[in-house]
Structures are given as C-alpha cells and as structure tokens.
Amino acid sequence: MRKILEIPPITENDIDKVSKVIDTIANNLDKDCRNELIELQRLTGKPHSVEEFAEYWGWTDLDSLARITLMPEPPCVSDLDRTEIEKIIGIIKESFISGEDDKGQYYIELLHKSMSVPDVLNYIMSGQDVKTIADQMLSAKNNVILL
Length: 147
Known about the structure:
- The chain has 147 residues and is mainly alpha-helical.
- Helices cover 57% and strands 0% of the residues.
- It contains seven helices and no strands.
- It has helices at 12-26, 34-44, 62-70, 82-98, 101-115, 120-124, 130-141.
- The radius of gyration is 17 Å and the shape is elongated.
C-alpha cells in the first residue's frame, strides 16, 4: 500500500495521556472542563467537546476511545485504484472482527473522502465479498453529483 494510505503511528505514551484526560472529562461532566478540552486539543491536534466522552463506557472502552480520539483525519486520495479500494475494504472488515475501531473508522472516512460515496459503511456491512463491494462503490462513485 502507498505511504499516504498508511495510518500514522500512535504511541502508547500518547494513548495514556489522552486516556487520563478523557477519564477526567467523563467523570466531571457537571463541571467546567475547558482546561481538559484545551489539553486534549493540544495532544490530538483536533477540537473536541465534552459530549464526545459522556458515558463512553456504554459503547466502547477507554483505550479504544483514546485511540479514536488520537487518530488523525485521513487524507483525500482521489486516485485510489481498484486494488487499493479492495485492500482498504478488507482492512475495514478485519478491523470489525479484531475490535480495532480506530483503524476501521479511519479507513471508512478515507474511502468516504476519497471516493465521495455516501454511506460507505452500508456497503461494507452488506455481507458481500470484497470484490462485489468494490464494484458497488465504484459504480456509486460515478453516480455522485458534487456541488
């Protein structure tokens, strides 16, 4: 896979730092968490809101949420070829099985941005094989009107 398609590495030290800040926010939702949000933005390079971390334990664990929070915005790669699309679809499917939510979300957003196909996740979750999903997404890409 081309370098631009690889996820930038996240260090365990960063995960620990972000986890602590998220935990502080999640346990103090009734208090002013501006300083924690500023620290989180400094660590991740992205703005965040308190609501992102409210009762996270109902849908994920702290480590996964820290990884998702640290994950950079994926690039728009307008020249994806069929082989790369199939590889990315395979990575997304595997990430659902392995529980690597951060990796799956990164590549879902990369496909969405790069192909301008809405509802990328619906294609992935269709139960079809990788080649069929790629066919459907490539066909849908040709039908999207960009404004």
